[in-house]
UniProtKB/TrEMBL annotation:
Principal localisation: nucleus
Family: Belongs to the RRP36 family.
GO biological process terms on file: maturation of SSU-rRNA from tricistronic rRNA transcript (SSU-rRNA, 5.8S rRNA, LSU-rRNA)
Coiled coil: 52-139
Official protein name in the record: rRNA biogenesis protein RRP36
Family annotation (Pfam families): RRP36
Any single GO CC term annotated in Swiss-Prot or TrEMBL for this entry: 90S preribosome
Keyword set includes Nucleus: yes
Basic residues: bias regions: 147-167
SUBUNIT field: Associates with 90S and pre-40S pre-ribosomal particles.
Length: 167
């Protein structure tokens, strides 16, 4: 810091040597980090899938050996979370592949000289449901899925109905 004379009163707005302030940047929203492309991301970090698989196997082994009830419960929760994350990742991958197939189809139609036609969100949802239906039918789990769906809808309907209070 600058040395000031003790004989002069200190000015109200004194001159201070300016220090450059550090600018923090978030790589998620910064242009310097580039554009996020899920395909490239999955290829780059594909080694993580192998590590996750090994960890899951390790947790399964620990679960078999474990005798403590609390520890066993924690391991079971961890295993469930791992399987759910794996399932969610597979679903995301299927969704991306579906979207890419639609884009390719639109490009081919554009090359033929036709106008591009983009599906609405509701139509995409219908296609997704139809695909899920065929998948369940193929695996033989359709009946159980539909019965669960019926039960859920019945509970929702009961909630919506006005309560039967005695007048």
């Amino acid at each position: 810091p600058l040395e000031m004379s003790a004989k002069k009163p200190v000015p109200f707005l004194r001159q201070v040597v300016s220090v450059r302030k550090k600018v923090h940047r978030d790589p998620r929203f910064d242009d310097l980090s580039g554009e996020y492309k899920p395909e490239i991301f999955t290829k780059t970090y594909s080694f993580l899938d192998n590590i996750k698989k090994q960890e899951k196997e390790m947790v399964q082994k620990q679960l078999k050996k474990c005798r403590n009830v609390e520890q066993k419960e924690k391991l079971q929760q961890l295993l469930n979370r791992m399987t759910q994350q794996e399932q969610a990742q597979k679903n995301q991958q299927k969704q991306r592949e579906r979207e890419l197939a639609l884009k390719r189809q639109q490009r081919e139609l554009a090359k033929q000289g036709k106008k591009p036609f983009f599906l609405k969100k509701s139509e995409k949802r219908k296609l997704e449901l139809a695909e899920k239906y065929t998948e369940l039918k193929r695996s033989g789990k359709l009946e159980s899925f539909l019965s669960k769906k019926r039960k859920r809808n019945a509970i929702k309907d009961k909630r919506r109905l006005p309560s039967q209070k005695s007048l």
